[in-house]
Specification:
The chain is an alpha+beta fold and about 400 residues long. It has helices at about 10-15, 20-25, 30-40, 50-55, 105-120, 130-150, 165-180, 255-345, 350-370, 375-390, and strands spanning about 5, 75-80, 185-190, 195-200, 205-215, 225-230, 245.
């Protein structure tokens, strides 16, 4: 199936113009597949029985306005296989450059919407109502504790990782972050349980989040138990920090957790926009590469055509010289036959029949190689005309 791209508004108009099954068939999709894509994009669909009521002339709800797109999600929905991960086709160089991405909301508006979606959150005193990502960590902790308890030779490698009060606080902060961004429609999933790393993701962008002890220097560094929430850094993989929130000198991150969750929602949106801009820059570069490729191909074609014409011209000259040489040889043969004939008139000679036979053969050879007598010069002209047509 060739790739088809729609805006959310276009899909909203489509699914409110006819039954889902009819729209899906027109697009070459299953109605289930179309429904999943529409729901994932946050597009409202007609309620069950809508089209039956409309067909019966009964009052049906009108098409609603398009809700804002989800944080970190594209406004474009694609169906079919994308060439992005395959060989990228050449950009049509006669087309204008691709337009720069435009976003329907400013980041300030995104922040206001995120604040409204997240509301007010707090860090729980325990993890009894943990987010599923944190529950995975707790389950691993319980399995480790059970393994140590039942093992005859317990290993330090199998010990639970987050039993210390500071580590429990790390989990509570992560749990609050996960629950907070979930209220804004983002997914929080466990990326790596050893540290741990939580992935905060929209449909088209994500950021990793960790909570670790603040990096301090000085004689009190070891006893300072302040924490940092860091977005963008993955231990042992990436040291790029996109955003960082620290325990304040007088206070704790718990008091800032709502702002942290809102900032993370905005950060996912920023990452989505940055990726769109990077892809746009790539497309501009790809277009320039295609233009340069076409220019080099044109120069190469011109070079080959020039060489073809030079070779053709040289072949014409070679044929001309060959024909002239053959004509000269034919004339020499005729002169030779004539000279032999004159010589035989005044000297004893073989029989007239023998000379006639020999001279006939010799003159026939002269005619055979003579391009004028045998008409081969006409073939040369016609061949050259054909060569000119092929090169045109």
């Amino acid at each position: 199936m060739a790739i088809k791209t729609f805006s959310r508004q276009q899909l909203l108009d489509l699914v409110w113009s006819a039954p889902m099954r009819s729209v899906a068939a027109e697009l070459g999709l299953s109605d289930v597949g179309l429904k999943k894509a529409v729901v994932k994009a946050g597009i409202p669909t007609p309620p069950q029985g809508h089209w039956n009521r409309a067909a019966a002339g009964k009052k049906a709800p009108p098409k609603p306005a398009l809700p804002p797109r989800k944080f970190g999600a594209s406004d474009q929905i694609q169906f079919g296989s994308s060439p992005w991960y395959n060989a990228q086709p050449d950009y049509p160089i006669d087309d204008p450059p691709p337009p720069a991405p435009e976003f329907d909301e400013s980041l300030e508006a995104i922040r206001r919407r995120a604040e409204k979606a997240v509301g007010k959150i707090a860090v729980a005193r325990d993890l009894k109502a943990a987010h599923p990502a944190i529950r995975q960590i707790l389950a691993d902790e319980a399995a480790r504790a059970e393994k140590v308890r039942t093992s005859r030779w317990p290993s330090s490698w199998d010990q639970p990782r987050f039993t210390a009060p500071l580590d429990q606080r790390r989990l509570r902060l992560l749990n609050a972050v996960c629950l907070g961004v979930a209220k804004a429609g983002l997914r929080a999933s466990l990326w790596g349980k050893e540290f741990p790393v939580i992935s905060i993701a929209g449909d088209d962008a994500s950021v990793p989040v960790i909570v670790q002890k603040m990096v301090m220097k000085g004689k009190n560094a070891e006893t300072d138990n302040r924490l940092s929430i860091i977005a963008g850094m993955i231990p042992d993989r990436s040291q790029e920090i996109l955003r960082r929130w620290d325990d304040p000198p007088e206070g704790r991150l718990e008091a800032l957790i709502t702002d942290v969750a809102v900032d993370l929602v905005v950060l996912v949106e920023e990452q989505f926009r940055a990726e769109r801009m990077r892809r746009h820059a790539w497309r501009l570069e790809h277009r320039e590469q295609c233009i340069e490729k076409a220019r080099l191909a044109r120069l190469e074609a011109e070079r080959k055509e020039r060489e073809r014409r030079e070779a053709l011209e040289q072949a014409r000259i070679d044929r001309l010289l060959h024909d002239a040489d053959q004509l000269q040889k034919a004339q020499l043969i005729r002169q030779y036959v004539a000279e032999v004939g004159r010589h035989l008139e005044s000297a004893p000679a073989p029989s007239a029949e023998a000379f006639k036979e020999w001279s006939g053969w010799a003159l026939a050879q002269a005619d055979r190689i003579d391009p004028v007598r045998n008409g081969s010069f006409l073939d040369r002209i016609e061949d050259e005309d054909l060569d000119d047509e092929k090169g045109a």
